């Protein structure tokens, strides 16, 4: 593999970016050497491998292994193409996440192919320690420069958006997609498509949609069922009412019922703590009576404030 003086590598403005914490990568290079050479074009312009080059410079390396663009495999070219695409400014949040996922998948496929071609590689390496396992999270990060945490987030975004396509709208930032995902997963599985249909309209902004999902999670099952019944009605007024009810905040519980629940729990704990105590039957009975009173107060509160 050819080498080049580090100072001769040309880093264009496009690649002058913040690489984040490269200390861990520098430590890996020092222990195992450069597992994946940087890539240059015929004029020594850096095509990919900026983090590896930065780590080598941190270590004070004078030379570094490289490959020319013309010697790349099909998957390596694909990885570079994906990296180029990710630098575009017009990607939607979904497109950016999908790009990251594809980069990680391509890097894993490359690692698998290389391992099959060189099954003994690394076993007789003069370097101390173990290089990153082919296709491991660290190996993928070394190849792509994308931290595992970012890949995890991208995978969740892509999975969620492909399940609920209306979130491909550019207004759905990744944070909103993840918030919606969290609330949807708290709903019964049978309710998720209904909830998605409720918030998937073109005139519902993501912030409001996420708020509606949060309300649906907090509503009693019977209240959600009524909302979904209205949503499926052929009457446009009832469909509008479904959205209105879904957007309504769940009333705060009556503080008396909350306190009584705590008292009931404490009475039950005391009965369990003093095993065989003659007062335990009374403690248990009082606990049940206090809990029943809390139920009566809760039900009265709901009738007054609505479901």
Can you offer a commentary on this structure?
A hairpin with a 5-residue loop joins strand 2 and strand 3. The protein has helices spanning 23-32, 50-58, 74-86, 93-117, 137-144, 148-163, 174-186, 192-199, 206-218, 221-231, 236-247, 255-273, 280-305, and strands spanning 3-5, 38-40, 46-48, 63-68. The protein is mainly alpha-helical. Helix 12 packs antiparallel against helix 13 (280-305). It has a 4-stranded mixed β-sheet with strand order 1-4-2-3, covered by helices on one side. It has 4 domains: 1-71, Conserved hypothetical protein from pyrococcus furiosus pfu- 392566-001, ParB domain (Alpha-Beta Complex); 73-163, no CATH class; 169-247, no CATH class; 255-305.
Topology summary:
Blueprint: E1 3-5, H1 23-32, E2 38-40, E3 46-48, H2 50-58, E4 63-68, H3 74-86, H4 93-117, H5 137-144, H6 148-163, H7 174-186, H8 192-199, H9 206-218, H10 221-231, H11 236-247, H12 255-273, H13 280-305
Helix pairs in contact: 1-2, 3-4, 4-5, 4-6, 6-7, 7-9, 10-11, 12-13
């Amino acid at each position: 593999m050819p080498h080049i003086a580090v100072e001769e590598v040309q880093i264009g403005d496009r690649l002058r970016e913040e690489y984040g914490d490269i200390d861990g990568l520098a430590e890996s290079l020092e222990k195992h050497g450069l597992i994946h050479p940087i890539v240059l074009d015929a004029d020594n312009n850096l095509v990919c491998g900026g983090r590896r080059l930065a780590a080598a410079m941190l270590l004070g390396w004078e030379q570094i292994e490289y490959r020319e663009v013309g010697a790349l495999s099909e998957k390596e070219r694909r990885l570079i193409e994906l990296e180029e695409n990710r630098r575009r400014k017009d990607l939607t949040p979904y497109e950016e996440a999908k790009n990251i996922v594809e980069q990680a998948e391509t890097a894993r496929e490359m690692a698998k192919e290389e391992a099959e071609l060189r099954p003994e590689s690394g076993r007789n390496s003069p370097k101390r320690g173990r290089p990153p396992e082919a296709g491991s999270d660290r190996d993928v990060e070394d190849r792509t420069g994308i931290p595992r945490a970012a890949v995890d987030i991208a995978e969740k975004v892509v999975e969620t958006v492909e399940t609920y396509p209306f979130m491909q709208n550019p207004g759905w930032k990744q944070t909103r997609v993840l918030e919606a995902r969290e609330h949807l997963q708290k709903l019964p599985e049978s309710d998720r498509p209904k909830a998605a249909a409720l918030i998937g309209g073109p005139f519902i902004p993501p912030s409001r949609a996420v708020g509606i999902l949060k309300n649906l999670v907090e509503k009693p099952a019977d209240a959600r069922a009524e909302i979904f019944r209205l949503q499926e009605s052929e009457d446009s007024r009832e469909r509008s009412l479904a959205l209105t009810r879904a957007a309504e905040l769940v009333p705060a519980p009556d503080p008396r019922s909350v306190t009584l629940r705590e008292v009931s729990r404490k009475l039950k704990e005391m009965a369990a703590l003093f095993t065989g105590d003659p007062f335990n039957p009374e403690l248990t009975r009082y606990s049940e009576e206090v809990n029943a009173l809390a139920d009566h107060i809760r039900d009265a509160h709901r009738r007054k404030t609505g479901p």
